[in-house]
Specification:
Strand content: under 5%
Protein name: Cobyrinic acid a,c-diamide synthase
Organism: Nocardioides imazamoxiresistens
Shape: extended
Number of strands: 0
Order of helices and strands: HHHH
Radius of gyration: 19 Å
């Protein structure tokens, strides 16, 4: 008897990867305005979330760091009901670090860590 392969449904294949356009935005408005000026300090930095990402950056981590990321991801799912993949978790962490750098400057946690102060 031949085994049947289970294929993903059409909903899985064609799920939206971007936020739906709001009614206030006209459909003819450009979606990508090009390079933007740095955001003002009062505008919170937001990660990209679940969208199609056009750029790729490879980051090498140790086995212990990868294990920490996986444990954090699983802890968020088990204890807080938040299911995220590793990429989204890393993008969120980078957004937090960059926002902290923008608002606190020399007192930011990322700068202190990179300078060996903590």
């Amino acid at each position: 008897m031949a085994r049947r392969v289970r294929l993903p449904s059409a909903d899985d294949l064609f799920r939206p990867t971007t936020e739906p356009a709001s009614a206030a935005t006209p459909p003819s408005a450009p979606q990508d305005p090009g390079p933007a000026a740095p955001a003002p300090a009062e505008t919170p930095r937001r990660p990209s979330g679940r969208v199609k990402h056009d750029e790729k950056m490879t980051v090498y981590v140790t086995s212990a760091e990868l294990l920490d990321i996986e444990q954090a991801r699983l802890r968020m799912r088990a204890e807080h009901g938040v299911a995220v993949d590793r990429g989204r978790l890393v993008r969120e962490a980078v957004a937090l670090a960059l926002a902290d750098l923008e608002t606190r400057g020399a007192d930011s946690a990322i700068l202190r860590r990179l300078n060996g102060e903590g």
